[in-house]
Known about the structure:
By secondary structure, chain A is α+β, with helices and mostly antiparallel strands. Chain A has helices at residues 18-32, 36-56, 111-118, 140-145, 147-160; strands at 6-12, 65-73, 76-83, 121-127, 130-138. Chain A has a single domain (8-92, 109-160), classed as Histidine kinase-like ATPase, C-terminal domain (Heat Shock Protein 90).
Amino acid sequence: MTTELSSQIVMQAKLDQLPRLERWVEALAVEFLLPSSLVHRVDLCLTELITNLIGYGYPVGEVGTVSIHAWRQAEEIVIRIDDDAIPFDPTSYVPPGLPSSLAEASVGGRGIRLVRHFADALHHVRRVDGNELTLIFRSSGARAHSPAAAAARHSVSLDSVR
Amino acid sequence: MELAVQDLDSGVLGINLSGRMDIIGTQQIDLKFTMLVSTRKAQILVDLSNVTFIASIGIRTLVSNAKAQKLRGGSMVLYKPNNQVEEVLRATGIDTIIPIVHDFDAARGAFGSA
Lengths: 162, 114
C-alpha cells in the first residue's frame, strides 16, 4: 500500500464531539486537496455513521471510543472507522425501498441508504471488541468516467463483502 | 441552525432555514419548525437556500412535518436547496414525495396541484 498522506481522529461517541469531526473533515479537505463534492460525500457518510453509532452502538449510559483514519491510496480516499460498539454491518443492511407517496413514506431510516449511495465501496470486518468499517471514495471524475467504478459502486464492491 | 418566518404572497407561509441540518442543527429548530408546520392547515414553503448540509435526521424532520401538514389538508414544498443538499434529497427519493422547486411560480404550481 502506497500512502501519500494520512490523518486520524480519536473521539468519544458523543453528540458534542460531532463539531470536532466536522472540523477534522474540513482540515482533511485542505490537507488532501479534495474537491468540494468529495468532501461533501465524506462529511455526509461520516456524519451518518457516527450519529448512528452514538444513537444505537452502545448500551444506554455507556460512551464508546471511535477512531477514524483517512489516507490517500492511488486515486482513492480510504477512511477506516474502528469502534468498540455492538456488531453492526451496514454492508448487509437492506435499506427500505423508496416511498411511492408521502402517506406511505417512513419518517426515518435513510442514513445507511445515504452511506451506500455516496461511498463507492464499503467493507466491514467484525472484530472481537468492535467493528472495522472501511469506506472508499473516488473523485467524481473517476466515478463518472469509469464503468468499473460505477459497477463497483452499485453492486460488486458492496455485494462482495456481504 | 436558525429559523425565520416570512409571510409570502398568496397566503403562503415561508420558513427560512439556515445552517447545518445534522443532528445538532436539527435539534435546534425541530420544535419551532413542528409548531409552525404541523399545528394548522397551511401552504408552507421551506426555503433551504441557506442550508449548507443535510443529513438523514434533517430529512426525518422535513418528512414527518410534510406528512402532518398533508393530514391537515395543506401542503409543503422545498425551495432552492443547493446542489449538494438536493442530491441528498433525491438520493432518498424525497423529490418524489415533497416537491422541490427553484422559483416561486413553480412553488405556486406545486401548491395548486397538491
